Amino acid sequence: MALFFDAEWFDARLGERGLSRRLLAAAAGLSEAEIALVFKDQRELSAAEVALFAELLGVEAKEVADRAGVSTPVPGQGSATEARITALERRVAALEAELRRLRGG
Question: Which parts of the chain fold into alpha helices (H)?
Answer without folding.
Answer: 7-16, 21-28, 32-39, 47-57, 61-68, 80-102
